[in-house]
């Protein structure tokens, strides 16, 4: 289902992907298949999520207490595989959207819409269109950015940069927003807006990375007709991931191979722990390994090995739906690798020079009371969350693996930790996992089920959702670090 301004006859020329929610032009010879799963996720069997929800009364309590929609939506159902984290997530999101803060309630939801539109995330757009109207938003604003006050439109530049290339944000961007006469933003308002933008960019990564299905809502909503498109997944077809291939998941195909991969990963984790105890790597070597990992990330191309035809062909067939394009400017602006080939290097963001713990937290908490505590709790929760298991193995210390996932995301955004050996990333994260991470983090709208299925084949869906939570929070923190550093430089 998708909101849009197209007529029924026009929509007949296009197909809607249930995984990435993009509209693609119809191929005359395309073969239709049925969706692989129903329920909250296109990637995770419904019974696994349902079982988690039925046994955990805590989830129902959290929804009643903190859900802004008043119901157990698909995102919450999937996140409920990790109830501890879910509480931190819902509390912080509720605070951003509903509690006392610098911004009016309708503006908060409109900013969420603007953020989700950068990644063409119709799921989040639809959700916040509803919330925008419920909180008294002016319906005319939903016709597009040209109908909103100039003050909100002025957020377009920072929205675009935060979503795709946050390292380009400077104190000049901040100054432009806070010194625009009658359309100016106060610093508390701007911090609130930045937190919302970063939150919804990152949440779009979770939506696509976890294959969150559209909510099942019939007919017409808020004056927009929901156009029903045949129930199949174009991503699966485009990537040769049709039912014939998908059915292999039900037998023993690849089990022996993936068991070998699991054992090898655990052995590498054990060896890295021993090496760390035996001796320290020099600072020069640490720097070299970061630069090497940063450069290697250039060659991790989203979609590689997953498409049955060149990625550029796939890209050319994508169009923006009306409900997305109306909320963004410069739609062609997207992620570019921080360390681009053949270009002068941008200065690396040394995490020790501007940390969340020592700098970002205090600034955001001073300008937008208490949000710093809630975000800090959420970051710590996902980073430290562990059940000491890996697939069928118990009593496993997964610290090195979690740190590698978090730091690899920051590496792609040009953020370096001086005390981290980036050689661990190469040893712990296989190629298919790196492709998945880069896609979910930088180009989430391109994520497919095949990418999700391709890595850690012996791990549980709950463990893969944990990966997505780590990627989401690492991305949000990276965006906030760049934005808050720019605000700090403006203040000094």
TrEMBL record:
GO terms for biological process: cellular response to glucose starvation; cellular response to L-leucine; cellular response to leucine starvation; glucose homeostasis; negative regulation of TORC1 signaling; positive regulation of macroautophagy; regulation of insulin receptor signaling pathway; regulation of phosphatidylinositol 3-kinase/protein kinase B signal transduction. The keyword Ribosomal protein does not apply. The keyword Translocase does not apply. Residues 255-289 form a coiled coil. GO terms for molecular function: L-leucine binding; oxidoreductase activity, acting on peroxide as acceptor. Keywords: Coiled coil, Cytoplasm, Oxidoreductase. Its main location: cytoplasm. It is found in: Cytoplasm. GO terms for cellular component: cytoplasm; GATOR2 complex; nucleus; TORC2 complex. It catalyses: a hydroperoxide + L-cysteinyl-[protein] = S-hydroxy-L-cysteinyl-[protein] + an alcohol. PANTHER family: P53 REGULATED PA26 NUCLEAR PROTEIN SESTRIN, SESTRIN-3. Belongs to the sestrin family. This is Sestrin 3. It comes from Peromyscus maniculatus bairdii. The lineage of its organism: Eukaryota, Metazoa, Chordata, Craniata, Vertebrata.
